[in-house]
Amino acid sequence: MDTADESPEGPAAEVDRNSATSPARDEGPGEVTARPKRSFFGGPVFMVLFMALVAGATFVVTMLLMSINDHQVEGSRAFYNVVELDETSYDPATWGQNYPIQYADYKKTAEFTPAEHAGTMVPHSVEGDPRSEVKSQKLEEDPRLIEMWSGYAFAVDYRHARGHEYATIDQQYTLRNAKDQQPGTCANCHVSAPALYDKLGNGDREAGFEATGTMKLSEVLADGSVSHPVACIDCHDPKTMELRVTRPSFMRAIKALKASQGVNDFEVNKDATPQEMRTYVCAQCHVEYYFKGDNKVLTFPWDKGIDIDNIYSYYEEQGFTDWTHEKTGAPMLKAQHPEFDIWSNSVHAANGVGCADCHMNYKRVGAGKVSNHHVTTPMVDVNASCGTCHKTGDGVIEKRVRTIQANFISSRDRAFDALVGLISDLEAAKTNGTSPEQVALAQQYQRKASFYLDYVYSENSYGFHAPDYEQRIINQAENAAQNGRLALTGKTAEELKASDVSTANAEHYPSDKAATGASQGSGH
């Protein structure tokens, strides 16, 4: 008898015990039952992987809870004022007793930060001027500026800008004041406004604002009690530390701009979001502006919108002129420093990235996080300013910035050469028999070309704040300059107007909607 058939430990019994894991198979004569397969989920490899996964998940959750706890502790940490702050706390040193970290950074705006387009510090010795060094002279670097501004104070002195610490003294002793006494309106952005308004308006800041244009700048700055540069109180509520706007010029302008966009009765200090305020406090000064009326009231030209075409149209409707060009007799407009205006037409603005995100990036101090009050170029710390959004390798952001700025300078130079050529042609037209009608038309083209070019030249990002938008402005400036030269050859305004195709494209892709994505799109 076959003992294998009788033994309970034989192959048949083995198959029965493992029937759950090995499929049954018919045995023919002489066949042997296959060995069962061991389950992966019951093996040692699975157990090791499982334990590693559990350990990893535990670590991640633990770290997350620790981070949440750290932030809760930061938020609940008790704060004790050393001094009580109120609406008369004008001196930032007083605020510095409560906020020493921010104050120490603020004082760094007195330091020179080297940058590719920042100019250099040069020795300075002028009788009556206490400054021993100043920034280098842009008029020497680019004499075409003297041609563009011929007859205006900026053709006398136009230097690279220094930090906020020097906003008052550099304005007080610029040679532009010697050329043409500037109005007190300039003080709105070159001193701490609340102190100035309280003094001039006897506590009524709105009245103090209106009074600035009735005085000369030298009169305003002669009072040492109101001649401190921009300070903490300009941007922060002394009781809550919340950001706020203190200059009526911006309050009025942003209300008008929002109305042009369909948002009525916008009150910036009530209706703006905290993120918007991180830009709006800067936009109190870093904007295009003009002095309106006999009292030279500081006004931002945003009633029709914030695209340059809107702004130029506004000036045309107002009939406003800054000065008459000394060489050509053209009625001219002087652009200022429209950083906010240009940024508003950028991809960064469309995505909610504000001024402070790049120029006052957050930094860690111990267990806390604060805004860096050393307001400066983002290129000082690209990782902290750009790296929070752009995860790139070393040198990629810097190369991108240099490329944008190099392209901007190249385009700007071509437009500038065309403008200088127009000025030369207009000067010659005075004596070569050119008709007054041709000269008048060419002067209008000079006015537009000069304003558009000045707009991007006076904006301090060298094309970076809104690269595509600024290239468009430069193209418009060059086109106006070339049309001006053609006008002197006898071409009429009708002959020089845009083609039907260009006009149709402009209507289909309106430039003043580009930044918000409100244009009609590609049409596909």
From TrEMBL:
Reaction(s) this enzyme catalyzes, per UniProt: 6 Fe(III)-[cytochrome c] + NH4(+) + 2 H2O = 6 Fe(II)-[cytochrome c] + nitrite + 8 H(+)
Alphabetical keyword list: Calcium, Heme, Iron, Membrane, Metal-binding, Oxidoreductase, Signal, Transmembrane, Transmembrane helix
Compartments where located: Cell envelope
Transmembrane parts of this sequence: 45-68
Residue span of region Disordered: 1-36, 499-524
Gene Ontology terms: biological process: anaerobic electron transport chain
Cellular component, GO annotation: outer membrane-bounded periplasmic space
Main location as per UniProt: other
Any Pfam family matching the protein: Cytochrom_C552
Gene3D superfamilies cross-referenced by the UniProt entry: Butyryl-CoA Dehydrogenase, subunit A, domain 3, Flavocytochrome C3, Chain A
CDD domains named among the record's database cross-references: NrfA-like (cd00548)
InterPro entries assigned: Cyt_c552, Multihaem_cyt_sf
EC assignment: 1.7.2.2
Molecular function in Gene Ontology: heme binding; metal ion binding; nitrite reductase (cytochrome, ammonia-forming) activity
Similarity-based family: Belongs to the cytochrome c-552 family.
Protein name: nitrite reductase (cytochrome; ammonia-forming)
Lineage: Bacteria, Bacillati, Actinomycetota, Actinomycetes, Actinomycetales
Gene for this chain: nrfA
